[in-house]
Amino acid sequence: MYRKIIRRRTIRKYKQRAVPKEILVKCVDAARLSPSGANLQPLKYVIINNGELLKKVFKTLRWAGYLPDYQPSIEEMPMAYIVILLDQKVANSYGHDAGIAAMSISMVAYDEGLGSCILGAIDRKQLEKILNIHDNLNIVLVIALGYPAEKPVPDKMKNGDQKYWLDEKEVLHVPKKEFEDIVNWNVFSP
Ligand SMILES: Cc1cc2nc3c(=O)[nH]c(=O)nc-3n(C[C@H](O)[C@H](O)[C@H](O)COP(=O)(O)O)c2cc1C
After folding, report:
1. What local confidence, expressed as pLDDT, does residue 94 receive?
2. Is the pLDDT of residue 190 over 90?
3. Domain residue extents for the chain
4. Cβ contacts of residue 29 below 8 Å, gap of 6+?
5. Which pTM was predicted?
6. More confidently predicted of 110 and 190
7. One fold for both 2-150 and 152-190?
8. DSSP line for 133-186
9. Which of 11, 26, 101, 130 has most Cβ atoms within 10 angstroms of its Cβ?
10. 3-state DSSP call for residue 45?
């Protein structure tokens, strides 16, 4: 499990190959059985795998904010989405639940050979309209899914710069903070 978690990277470019329905069901089932604050389970899901709809949803999402020139084209778009919704009738501030569900989905997807991207930069008004989302439901996150067409690599963060970057071979490098820079054992050192 540890190896898989550290090797997973966000994928933003995908092969145009269908994602099997059984994998999508597994992803949402993992989210369904994930931890939930007070066990309220306020989340609902929309699974999207219909060709025309995939294109419409794609246009509502904002990719790789740090790299305006590194955007997936329509020929590299995700082949499925799972939209995470919060039911306001059940709870109104359960962002943690959505984050945990998103990671469960991403890890099951990774385990099945899929790439994923968690997206928070969404034209929510537009997406609500496209998916006919009911008034009591808020779109929290969208998880894009598909077989990977890129291989990003983790990198050491330099000069505190968190922006991912492309090398001359168009490989995406993702800066990560060092263990020592973020961890204190027992108490903070002076
Ligand atoms: C809550 C959340 C929201 C995110 N929103 C977006 C997004 O809107 N667009 C995007 O391209 N990536 C998005 N990402 C992906 C992050 O950019 C990515 O996780 C980060 O650069 C680290 O890369 P890694 O996942 O490969 O470790 C989001 C990730 C998280 C956890």
Report:
1. 74
2. no
3. 2-150, 152-190
4. none
5. 0.97
6. 110
7. no
8. --TTEEEEEEEEEE-BS---EEEE--TT----EE-TT--EEEEE--HHHH--SS
9. 101
10. strand
Residue 98 CA to residue 115 CA, distance in Å, equals: 19
CATH of region 152-190: 2.20.180.10
Rg (CA), the chain: 18
CA of 117 to the centre of ligand 1 (A): 6
Average pLDDT over residues 49-66: 96
Ligand 1 pocket list (CB less than 6 A): 9-10, 12, 62-64, 117-121, 152, 164, 174
DSSP secondary structure of 111-137 = HTT-EEEEE--B-HHHHHHHHT--TTE
Q: Token digits for 59?
A: 């246009």
Q: Find where tokens 């099997």 sit.
A: 20
- Nearest atom in ligand 1 to the alpha carbon of residue 121 is 8
